[in-house]
């Protein structure tokens, strides 16, 4: 046995990589000599692949001369092994197993290869030396597993943190997007929400059969002036409640600002539309007639028009607004329709 062969005779065969993975195990000269006698020598050219990650392996290798690179995949650093170092030891210890790293020859390399069947031969020849090797190899495998498990757990935590942050950011974004479309006081959509709803209906070619009702409080300024701003707020919220109560899932009730509201509503025909508008004005009228102090509501005026899918939003808005103006001019607490239909 040539005890001097191999220039990497280990004084401390178990060394740690910077990231903590224990890899740098070299055989002692006596171990190297024993493995060389029992195993088979094989020559490889630079660039040759010994095995890939995920391959089934049944052999281990000891480098006599040359260099081999191990690739563990992911973001784990690659490792270059040199003379005297061994790898693939699970092939010797447990036989058939899935390789956790790929191995590629970097320079012309001479290896000794040993299969799982040769463990017994090694033990027969020098049990003490093999026990020493096994102890070291198993320690290395266990330590590497621990380091890899720790890394995985840390990655898992980091991934979890990143997902939590992403989820929080998405929720915040959704909330702020909702806020941009919602009226804080009443919880209704605002003008932007109404326009987006219209755009969606246009895209889906569902706008036909809809009408725009502009709803405005009568003498609302007086509520504020006489009873205070909070009482005014409560009136606005109650107007919103009435509108919400008539709006179906395909309708949208919005507050455009101040005491002006809008209802984009689908109706079967003019009579249906009149019934909806009549319910709104009639409910506000009945509640106002109860004359609570401070008032819970004020009477309402409505200007309405059918939506023409072939004309622009600004056209229907102008039509409904002109009708609303007429309803106000006639004393409020009433409904006026664009052109043909007056209540
Ligand atoms: N309480 C309260 N008042 C508001 C709010 N936004 C606007 N206003 C007030 O609403 C009032 C609207 O007054 P006007 O536009 O003259 O309406 P009006 O008194 O109903 O008059 P007509 O529409 O002609 O019947 C103003 O006094 C605004 O200050 C709000 O969010 N809360």
Automatic annotation (TrEMBL):
One of its GO terms (biological process) is cell adhesion involved in single-species biofilm formation. The keyword Metal-binding does not apply. It is found in: Cytoplasm. SMART domains: cNMP (SM00100), GGDEF (SM00267). It catalyses: 2 GTP = 3',3'-c-di-GMP + 2 diphosphate. Residues 208-340 form the GGDEF domain. GO terms for cellular component: cytoplasm; plasma membrane. Residues 149-179 form a coiled coil. The keyword Coiled coil applies. Its main location: cytoplasm. It comes from the Bacteria. Pfam families: cNMP_binding, GGDEF. This is diguanylate cyclase. The lineage of its organism: Bacteria, Pseudomonadati, Pseudomonadota, Gammaproteobacteria, Lysobacterales.
């Amino acid at each position: 046995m040539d005890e001097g062969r191999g220039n990497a005779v280990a004084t401390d065969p178990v060394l740690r990589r910077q990231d903590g993975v224990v890899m740098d195990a070299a055989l002692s000269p006596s171990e190297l000599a024993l493995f060389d006698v029992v195993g088979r020598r094989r020559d490889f050219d630079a660039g040759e692949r010994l095995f890939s990650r995920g391959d089934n392996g049944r052999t281990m290798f000891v480098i006599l001369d040359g260099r081999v690179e191990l690739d563990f995949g992911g973001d784990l650093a690659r490792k270059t092994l040199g003379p005297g170092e061994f790898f693939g030891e699970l092939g010797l210890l447990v036989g058939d197993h899935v390789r956790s790293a790929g191995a590629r020859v970097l320079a012309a390399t001479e290896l000794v290869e040993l299969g799982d069947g040769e463990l017994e031969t090694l033990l027969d020849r020098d049990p003490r030396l093999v026990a020493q090797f096994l102890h070291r190899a198993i320690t290395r495998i266990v330590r590497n597993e621990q380091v890899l498990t720790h890394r995985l757990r840390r990655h898992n935590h980091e991934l979890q943190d990143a997902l939590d942050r992403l989820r929080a950011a998405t929720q915040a974004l959704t909330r702020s997007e909702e806020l941009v479309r919602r009226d804080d006081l009443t919880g209704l959509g605002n003008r932007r929400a109404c326009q987006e709803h219209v755009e969606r209906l246009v895209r889906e070619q569902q706008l036909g059969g809809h009408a725009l009702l502009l709803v405005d409080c009568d003498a609302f300024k007086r509520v504020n002036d006489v009873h205070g701003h909070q009482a005014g707020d409560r009136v606005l919220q109650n107007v919103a409640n009435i509108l919400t109560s008539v709006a179906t899932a395909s309708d949208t009730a919005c507050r455009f600002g101040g005491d002006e509201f809008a209802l984009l509503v689908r109706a079967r025909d003019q009579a249906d539309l009149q019934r909806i508008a009549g319910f709104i004005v009639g409910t506000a009228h009945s509640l106002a007639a109860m004359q609570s102090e401070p008032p819970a509501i004020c009477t309402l005026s409505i200007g309405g028009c059918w939506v023409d899918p072939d004309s622009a939003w600004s056209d229907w808005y102008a039509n409904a607004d002109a009708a609303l103006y007429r309803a106000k001019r006639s004393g409020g607490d009433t409904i006026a329709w664009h052109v043909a239909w007056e209540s």
